[in-house]
Structure formats: structure tokens, C-alpha cells
Design brief:
Blueprint (H helix, E strand, L loop, with lengths): L1 E4 L3 H12 L4 E4 L13 E2 L1 H10 L5 H4 L1 E2 L2 E4 L2 E5 L9 E2 L2 H14 L18 E4 L6 H5 L4 E16 L8 E7 L2 E8 L3 E7 L11 E15 L3 E2 L2 E3 L5 E2 L7 H20 L9 H26 L3 H14 L3 H12 L20 H4 L26
Parallel strand pairs: 1-2, 1-8, 5-10, 8-15
Antiparallel strand pairs: 3-7, 4-7, 5-6, 9-12, 9-13, 10-11, 11-12, 13-16, 14-15
Helix pairs in contact: 1-4, 1-6, 2-6, 6-7, 7-8
The structure holds flavin-adenine dinucleotide.
């Protein structure tokens, strides 16, 4: 029996991945029931592939808002509509968790709410998917190294009749003031701004949800201690700029699931489990390394940073190869592994022939099951 602590996107995806291989699994969560607030709002194309392989994509692709452009002070700064890899599904984390819970239920497992980690500490296999303040991580004595990047970052989901197109991210930058507005499904807008900025493009009818938090950049020094593993925010936290957090957790979950399944079924040596950290920790480190400077550049309060942003960064975004690079990086479709399993000519690479076209890509449909999403050539059964 494998015990997963945390029924967020990472824990739920891991549980679905293990049940696909008929592994007995428990999912416990200290909360009294599912979270209803939106939190993360972007499923990247690679994350959508993972959900599709787990059978948990459901209607998310149809319900989501598709982003085509990024506008800065009303002008198009980045047009993604012709880029094959563009296709972030803008949909709330709560909806993603709904689909994963539905799928897990169909696979025979219900989340055990009101069950804190302490009550399952002696499990044979304990997987900490219990978020940034992970009890499992602390219990295993694993350090979470890093620092604070920014204070007081404000998020609000609001209802408002603003005259903004709903296919664009809207950035409003005026001196030290900076606000980003995203369209969410159901006519809702997500407003994000640093330093408690309260600017909006017009009157707000209703605030659905509001949260202020500090952005940290931290990573667990190891993802495994014996039979204890960490995944998702328990293993890495960073800025929400770029929408990578939930997707990185989904990738961790898929990678760990098939390896644990092979080991608990006695079909692989336990050393296979070391490849989880070897493959996924560098991916997490790269996300931390890219989101921190991006956050400082986009939101940084200093005059020099603002000048670079306004005079260099925005114009650069109009250049096609720069657009392609940015969008590919955010999509996570380029994620590849260089760990010990990545032998051979295309070892460790995503295999589009199996994975199908990106779910969010223009004209793409659903993804057929069976993509690796893991080390190429070493597919799970
Ligand atoms: C306010 C806010 C806004 C965000 N916005 C974005 C965004 O715009 N884009 C983006 O990519 N990411 C965003 N994130 C980050 C994103 O939400 C996380 O990356 C994602 O939730 C990670 O999923 P997870 O399953 O690893 O952890 P979580 O979603 O944190 O889930 C952890 C689960 O563990 C449970 N738990 C915690 N402690 C215990 C315990 N001791 N015992 C049992 N259960 C426990 C919790 O109840 C929870 O259900 C945001 C996060 C927050 C908080």
C-alpha cells in the first residue's frame, strides 16, 4: 500500500497514475473537503498531455479559455496564435482537481479528508504531496533551501464588465505600477499585481476570491529519503509568473507513478526509484532558475529593471524566434531527461508520435493514451 499525503493536483495525479497500474493506494488530506478557490489557472500543453494519459482531462479543454495574445498597455506585444506549441488552457486549479478526483473515484479510490499526515507517518511508502509547508518533508528531515523573491503579491478573481478582449493576457505597466489581467472561464478576470497594487481597468462588480502571498523560491535538497518521497510544491516552490507550478507537479507525479508501480509489483529493482530525483529535480531547478529572473524583470520595482523591461523586453517579444522560444519553454513540451535511463539516440525525449499533438495546440484534439511523458524508450507497461 502506498500512502499519498495531499489531495492537490500532484497527489491526485500520482494516485491516478498508480491506480492505472493497479497499485493499492490511500490519499489522505488534512482539509475537511476539496478546495474551491481557483489558485493556479494554467494547464500547459505538457500538463494537458499528462491529464489526458491519466484519463482525467475530461471537458477541461472545451471549458478553458485559450490565450492567443499578450497585450502591453493595449498594444499586442506577443501574438501566439500562429505558434504550434501555444495552447495553455486557462482553467482554475479547482476544476483540474475536480477532474482528477472524478477519475480517481472511477479507479476505485476516494480521498480521506480530515486526515492529517501525522496519522499515517508509519506507512510503508509515504509520498509527500502536501504542498509548500509539507509535514512529510519536515518529518523526513529534508531541507527546503532557497529564499524569498517578493513580498505581498496580490491575486484577485473578479467579475467585471471590462472592455478587454478575452483571448489576451493584458499587462498594464505604468512606472512602478504593474498589473496583469487574465481572462478566466465563466466571465471572470484574474488580476495579479505586486506590492498590494489596487489598480484595475474599471469598476469591479464582485470579488470572488482574493489572496496576498509572498513569493519564495525553494527546492528540497533531495526528493527521496528511503521510502519517503516528495513531489509537487512539497519539493519545489517558485513564482507563479509563467504558470509552471501545477504543471511541474503533474510531471513529477507521472514520472514517479510508473516507477513506484514497477517496484511495488516486484518487476523492477528499487534503484529505479533513484531515477525519479535524477530526472525530476533538475527540471524543478530549471523552473526555479527561469521564473525568478522573469519575475524580477516583469515586476521589479527598480528604475533600471523597468527601463530594461520597457525598452528591451517588450520590443524583443515581437521577434518570432524569441516568441517561439518563450512559448515552447512555458509549454513544457521541451522537457527532456538526461538521467541514467536516458540512453540511446532519443533517450529521455518526449515522443510526439506517441503523445499526439499538444492538447491545446491549434486544431488539435485529445491526446491518445500511451505517450511516455517520461524517459523515451523506457515506457511504463
Ligand atoms: C494563492 C495561490 C495562487 C497560486 N497561483 C498560481 C498560478 O497562478 N499559477 C501556478 O502555476 N501556480 C500557482 N500557484 C501554485 C499552485 O497552486 C501549486 O503549484 C499547486 O497547487 C501545487 O500542487 P500540489 O498538489 O503540489 O500542492 P497543493 O495544491 O498545495 O496541495 C497540497 C495538499 O496537501 C494538503 N495538506 C497540507 N498539509 C497537510 C498535512 N499535514 N496532512 C495532510 N494533508 C495536508 C492540503 O490540504 C492540500 O490539499 C498558486 C498557489 C497559491 C497558494
Amino acid at each position: 500500500m502506498i500512502t499519498i499525503v495531499g489531495a492537490g493536483p500532484t497527489g491526485l495525479a500520482l494516485a491516478c497514475g498508480l491506480r492505472r497500474f493497479e497499485v493499492d493506494v490511500r490519499v489522505v488530506d488534512a482539509a475537511s473537503g476539496p478546495a474551491t478557490t481557483s489558485r493556479a489557472m494554467g494547464v500547459q500543453p505538457r500538463g494537458a498531455e499528462v491529464l489526458a494519459r491519466l484519463g482525467a482531462l475530461g471537458d477541461l479543454a472545451e471549458k478553458a479559455v485559450r490565450l492567443r495574445k499578450m497585450r502591453v498597455n493595449g498594444e499586442v506585444a506577443l501574438d501566439m496564435s500562429a505558434l504550434r506549441e501555444a495552447g495553455q488552457l486557462v482553467v482554475s486549479q479547482a476544476r483540474v482537481e475536480d477532474r482528477l478526483r472524478d477519475r480517481l473515484s472511477a479507479l476505485g479510490v476516494e480521498v480521506e479528508w480530515d486526515t492529517p499526515a501525522e496519522t499515517v507517518a508509519d506507512a510503508d511508502w509515504l509520498i509527500g504531496c502536501d504542498g509548500a509547508h509539507s509535514w512529510v518533508r519536515k518529518h523526513a528531515g529534508i531541507a527546503f533551501e532557497g529564499s524569498q523573491v517578493m513580498e505581498n503579491f496580490l491575486l484577485r478573481d473578479v467579475r467585471a464588465a471590462w472592455d478587454l478582449d478575452r483571448e489576451s493576457i493584458h499587462i498594464f505597466a505604468d512606472g512602478p505600477s504593474m498589473t496583469t489581467v487574465f481572462p478566466l472561464p465563466g466571465g471572470v478576470w484574474r488580476v495579479m499585481s505586486p506590492d498590494g497594487g489596487r489598480w484595475t481597468p474599471g469598476p469591479v462588480e464582485e470579488v470572488e476570491w482574493e489572496s496576498t502571498f509572498r513569493i519564495h523560491r525553494r527546492q528540497a535538497v533531495t526528493y527521496r529519503r528511503g521510502t519517503v518521497f516528495l513531489a509537487g510544491d512539497a519539493a519545489h516552490i517558485h513564482s507563479p509568473v509563467g504558470g509552471q507550478g501545477m504543471n511541474t507537479g503533474l510531471g513529477d507525479a507521472e514520472n514517479l507513478a510508473w516507477k513506484l508501480a514497477l517496484v511495488v509489483h516486484g518487476r523492477a529493482d528499487e534503484r529505479l526509484l533513484d531515477t525519479y530525483e535524477a530526472e525530476r529535480r533538475p527540471i524543478g531547478a530549471r523552473v526555479l532558475a527561469s521564473t525568478t529572473p522573469a519575475t524580477r524583470l516583469v515586476l521589479g520595482p527598480g528604475l533600471v529593471t523597468r527601463t530594461i523591461r520597457d525598452r528591451v523586453m517588450w520590443p524583443l517579444l515581437n521577434i518570432r524566434p524569441v516568441q517561439r522560444r518563450l512559448v515552447r519553454s512555458a509549454s513544457q513540451l521541451g522537457v527532456r531527461y538526461s538521467g541514467p535511463l536516458a540512453a540511446g539516440r532519443r533517450g529521455g525525449q518526449r515522443v510526439p508520435a506517441f503523445a499526439g499533438r499538444p492538447v491545446g495546440a491549434r486544431g488539435a484534439g485529445d491526446v491518445p493514451g500511451g505517450g511516455t511523458g517520461a524517459a523515451g524508450g523506457r515506457r511504463a507497461p
